[in-house]
């Protein structure tokens, strides 16, 4: 797990205010009611701007590899370009699947 995300989640959990009479939720923050720790991490992750996310930069790198290959004249074969892009695409798909579930 990302240490930055973990520390942000712990800060969020430290700021949670217990509501009396409602034992089904952890508490309420400025982002609304949070019921589980997983919701707290998702809330912190969604609050970040798009350019602060790893998936955005993985996408930028995956798109940049063939463009740099063409413009800089690296003469990489399609197999080499695919080998460079495949782990990035797998990371992007894995992160989006993780966030959906």
DSSP helix fraction: 55-70%
Instruction: Provide the low-confidence segments as ranges.
Output: 16-25
Tally the helices: 4
The major beta sheet can be summarized as: 2 strands, antiparallel
N-to-C SSE series?
Answer: HEEHHH
Strand content: 5-15%
Amino-to-carboxy terminus distance:
16 Å
Tell me the radius of gyration: 19 Å
**What structural class should be given to the helix and strand makeup?**
mainly alpha
Overall shape: elongated
Could you tell me the number of beta strands?
2
The average pLDDT score comes to: 75
Order of strands in the sheet with most strands: 1-2
Write down the domain tally.
2
Question: What does this protein structure show overall?
Answer:
This protein is mainly alpha-helical. The chain has two domains: 48 residues, no CATH class; 52 residues. It is 64% helix and 6% strand. It has four helices and two strands, in the order αββααα. The chain has a two-stranded antiparallel sheet with strand order 1-2. The radius of gyration is 19 Å and the shape is elongated. About 10% of the residues have low confidence.
Spell out the key features of this protein.
101 residues; mainly alpha; 2 domains; 4 helices; 2 strands; elongated
Question: Layout of SSEs?
Answer:
Elements: H1 3-14, E1 27-29, E2 32-34, H2 37-47, H3 54-72, H4 78-100
Antiparallel strand pairs: 1-2
Helix pairs in contact: 1-2, 3-4
């Amino acid at each position: 797990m990302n240490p930055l995300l973990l520390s942000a989640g712990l800060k969020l959990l430290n700021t949670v205010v217990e509501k009396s009479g409602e034992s089904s939720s952890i508490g309420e923050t400025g982002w609304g009611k949070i019921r589980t720790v997983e919701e707290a991490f998702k809330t912190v992750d969604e609050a970040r701007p798009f350019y602060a996310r790893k998936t955005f930069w993985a996408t930028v790198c995956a798109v940049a590899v063939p463009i740099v290959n063409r413009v800089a004249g690296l003469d990489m074969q399609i197999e080499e370009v695919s080998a460079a892009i495949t782990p990035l695409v797998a990371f992007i798909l894995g992160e989006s699947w993780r966030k959906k579930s």
